[in-house]
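Researcher: Here's my situation. A collaborator sent me these components and asked whether they could plausibly form a single complex. I don't have experimental data yet, so a predicted model of the whole assembly would be a useful starting point for our discussion.
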Amino acid sequence: MSRVTITINGKAETRDVEDRTLLVQFIREHVGLTGTHVGCDTTQCGACTVHLDGRAVKSCTVLAVAADGSQVMTIEGLADGATLHPMQQAFHEHHGLQCGYCTPGMIMASVDMVRRHDGELDEHTVRHELEGNICRCTGYHNIVKAVLDAAGKHRAAKTAAPVEAAE
Amino acid sequence: MNSPLKTAAPGAIVHPLKQPKSASAELSPEMKLVQEALFKHVGKPIPRKEDGRLITGKGRFSDDFSLPGQTYAAIVRSPYPHARINGVDKTEALASEGVLLVLTGEDILADGIKDVPHNPVPSTNFDMKLRAKDGSHAFTGPHFLLPADKARHVGEAVAIVVAETAAQAADGAEKVMVDWEELPFVTDTAKAAAPGAPTIWDEVPDNVFIDTTFGDIEGTNRAFEAADHVVKGDFHIHRVTGVTMEPRASLGSYDPETKRYTLYAGSGGAVRQKNELSKVLGIEPKDLRVLSFDVGGNFGTRNRVYVEFGLVLWASRKIGRPVKFTATRSESFLTDYQGRDLVVKAELALNKDGKFLALRSDNLSNVGGRAVSLSPLSKGSGLITGSYDIPFAVLRARAVFSNTMCTQAYRSSGRPEVTFVIERMCELAADQLGFDKLELRRMNLVPPSSMPYTNAVGSVYDSGEYEKNMDRALEISEWNMFDARKAEAATRGKILGRGFANYVESSIGTPKERAEIEIKEDGNIEVIIGTQPSGQGHETSFAQVVADMIQVPVEKVWIVIGDTDIVSVGGGSHSGRSMRHAGTVMAMASADLLAEGRKRAAELFGSTPDQIEFEGAVFKLKNSNQTIDIFELGRRTRASHGKLRVIRDNEMHTPVFPNGAAVCEVEVDRDTGHVQIVRYTTIDDVGRCINPLIVHGQTHGGIAQGVGQAMWELCAIDPNSGQPLAGSLMDYGMPRSDTMPTFNCEIAEVFSPTNPLGIKAGGEGGTTPALATVVNAVVDALSEFGVKDIQMPVTPATVWRAMNNGRKAS
């Protein structure tokens, strides 16, 4: 057993966990945030994607002890109160989700993608970079549309307020 | 041989569309209202109400539920495809840390736990009647939660281990010692039905437990004798699996005080789970509550009872604590109900002009170790002639046991298989006899003037404009500009190929549905309905129907699903039935509610109901300024009349036949055999479209699943060991974002005459023609290598071999 402290969505969470505990288990079972999902056991599907110190990772492939002292953001922490994150809004408007099981991972991976490319995304890049997130319902068509829309809004915001966007 | 269909028909069932119109067949006043009132919100692409919770991490999937004091289950599974259980030693497992309970097939028998009443033979009036060879009801193989005699496929559950933690349960499961006696096995579909194959069930020594012939044998024989050409084809529409992104999960709890069981388990319909599991446990249905909220994909795989659902309930009673089971992805690959696996031999007779004269088809369905559902075989049986007017046909429909996981309805159950066959036969015929592929199809299509059209095996196609679909698909896919695109692709070392397929499919489904609608005091409308969405957006599209009827904003309508303590009746979601059945019964219930409201308003105004008008959710006394809105009316009359609330039941048996066409373009890499889909176009006649945003989304997903089967997906089994080779997402090829194209989809709306809203069904039409369309495109690309046919999935290895052998790859 190890004592682990991880700051999840801005709140420090300290638990004594078995050393084999995965980050996703820490999030779901120990902290009770069930928005992050487990879809496979082999780092293939991406349903468990969260942000670890600002980068998208598959939380089924990180040990909780390895994330000790880190900052984690899950899907529950993405919206600003009642205001949805632009990526959440885009998935809603473009019907980028059906059953919703892969959605938290899709959104977290997509937010990170827009950040890394600073919104400079085209369809080919979006499809290539979402390859590690599997969706069975949508055929990806509307997911790609949603990500491109959110990326476009990111670019527009950058142009409107270049200083803020750079921060 | 007699045709069961033809012998069963006289005096039994006359198809409603074939009955003479009678006065009673006219629309009732309330249904006239339904048709008049509707379609303010209906038909609009309203974004979904359910999204809010799903995009913020507040969904409620099965494994998200936990109960105080819960324990965890792990399952001991058979490592052999076929093996007798000579005994199970629990000693070491029970001594393992944290282990609380171990149960086996012997305990099932000792406790009187019954087999799951799957009722695998489809039985609505318009399902094809499948029987054993001697005409009797078939032996389908009992499905106990744990078998006591033998395991019939790799992965079959043979014991459950319950422990304090999931890890301890998994450790304990490894310590259960089963005394196995390996038996000869057979997994291949054709081999399982061949003479001398190992016997799966002693009751059916040759494994073939369904053998039924449909159609006019003599007429078909005469047509073949008179034919100028006969084209033959052999096909295996291989086995795939659903890969719902949410692995199946269940949490069972028994309350010794109330003697009631509670099950949290996502499925295709909680009511079915309640009814069947209560029989398994030997309890009254009222003593089992099933909750199924957000469901992470279904596609047919979750419609039937899984053994673990019964096991957690039974185990919970044994230890007096809740028991949770969540499948790993590998368990899902081994033991989710699988799909397809149909072997077909077909013969098509044509005259010298290309007119189709008759079809013979021999369809053999591999159901696995026991029959859970014959829906795929049955559904396909009614559609073997596809979109074409083929006057005579004979179908021999057989089902065979094998040492594989059970098959079940999967994404457009049975229809992609037979569509693949007839559309491949069109291509083979055109190629062998020198006809244009499209013209051959066109001259044989069922024309609108023949609707309702009875096909050669007795299915009655309700409506559709098949040639128009075909024309439109060709137009928007820019079929005529293909040559220029092919030349451009060649400059990049790619071979462009194009494929076309028509399709018609059927949507039948459980005929009964109930809707309950209540005007709530808080200004909302609550609708209780027994379908179970798993991403289809019922909470939005159903709300659109009720919002139109009651004339309120769609935000005010709330759909309640998935708790059997609230939802008492419901057919679940399968076979494209939900919107048609639920939409109709909700519209009827809304009409009832308005009738009740009119009555109450009349009393309030001291008038009669015929003097009350209703508009914009407000009742108004004619020629006066007296008005009351429906919510206020509910509040005002609650004390005197009770809640403003109605319950409506409806039954609809008549199937509908969605139809359409699809076009696919592929680029094949000359060096590697890699296939990339570059264009994909569809036209889908879904009847009335309630929410185009949702219907398009359903179509996209349907296409991906059809394309997935054609291109990558395969439940491969090693023939020497009987071991499944696809045990994780690393060995099973899934459609991914970078391998799928952007789709070009259009909806055609030819309203169905079979139901008041004119609905057919959406979504599965994406899948139905996809297998044929993709394979036709790949064969077209490879035609320069002399390739005439190719076995799915068209992986690079298969395509490369075909290019380099110049003959049919296998």
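Model: Some features of this prediction you could bring to your collaborator: The CA atoms of residues 37 and 48 of chain A lie 5 Å apart. Helices of chain A lie at 23-30, 86-93, 103-117, 123-129, 141-160, 162-166.
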